[in-house]
Amino acid sequence: MEINNPFPILDYYSPAYFCDRQKELQTLIKAFESNRNIILLSIRRMGKTGLIKHLFYHFRSENKKNIRLLYIDLLKTQSLSEFVKAFSNKILQDEQQNENWFKKLSGMLSGLRASITINDKDGTPALEFGYKTAEENERSLESIFQYLAEQKEKYLIAFDEFQQITSYPETNVEAVLRTHIQHQHKDSFIFSGSGKHVLISMFNDYGRPFYQSSEMVYLERLDVDEYAEFIQKKLKSGNKKMSLSLIKETIKQLDVHTFYVQYFFNKLYEIRSTQIKRDDVEELMDNILQEKEYVFFNYRNILTSMQFNLLKAIAKEGKVSSPNSSDFIKRYDFTQASSVNAALKSLSDKEMIYKEYGNYRVYDVFLSKWLERY
Ligand SMILES: Nc1ncnc2c1ncn2[C@@H]1O[C@H](COP(=O)(O)OP(=O)(O)O)[C@@H](O)[C@H]1O
Ligand SMILES: [Mg+2]
User: Fold this and answer.
1) pLDDT band at 118, cuts 50/70/90?
2) Which ligand approaches the C-alpha of residue 71 most closely?
3) N or C: which end of the chain has fewer CB within 10 A?
4) pTM confidence score
């Protein structure tokens, strides 16, 4: 599929628009082939969802009849019943392409106590659930897993934003799921998410069988050289030239954070110049920051002045390893380590900063650039 702009920022298109991740792709393929589950981690917007779709694309293009792929986004789910709904609707959508799907699913549907509604506009079916008690939801889950186990095909089931299940009001979701998944020998699972601590502890703290059968993949930043060459080729496809060194510099300026790099080059692709120079890069950066300024200014109202000043200090430093060292505290006129620590925690909880390999950084690369100049 051809698209107008070779730097998509909203969705995965095809391998042609996806840079590298060869090693990670092979790891995921091997894990599936040897029935190991994967825990896929990274900071937000680094490329987890893209990688899962890339993997699915790979399996689809192989056109194997004995593999079924289910991608389930849990981001918007807030309870076990919404989990059940998202999961079973995906199965329905997947089955719907086959003949006799209704008959095939009837067993599962009666277990779910759900009815099928047909969308007036495009005729797609969806499941509708009445109110259910927690026990009923657990039984629904049981019929879903039982259904999967009865199928002759091997399923690859990706739960994206899996950490979401820890925020459900039901307390035992993790344990219930773990039991099911542990017994689902035929199928493989990918648990993907950015709440690193939550996910790691979920898989470490419980019984070993679950942990042992899972393999952790941490998605790092793309290789700068590789990414720069990829970008140069894409620019060239639109008759645009840009030197490799300037591309690399730009990628690094954007923290090699995939979403922000894609976003920047998506916009850079649309400017008129055919020979892209440093001035073009700087002008675009100014424009982007100006466009977002309204939102960024508002953070001053949402955050306490301590939090805002700490955020600014981290942005100015780029990364900070010892935010409670006396050196750092003095440099930015903070009063004491305890107030810095409280602000750190609060900014982390709000996901405005993150800690990676011992360094704190501002999550939003553009916000960080803006604060640097502020
Ligand atoms: N390897 C890649 N090459 C090109 N674009 C990518 C790549 N990985 C991710 N992207 C793009 O970057 C953005 C963020 O990636 P996403 O997969 O949504 O991150 P995450 O799921 O980790 O939050 C998306 O627009 C996605 O299309
Ligand atoms: Mg994602």
Assistant:
1) confident
2) 2
3) N
4) 0.94
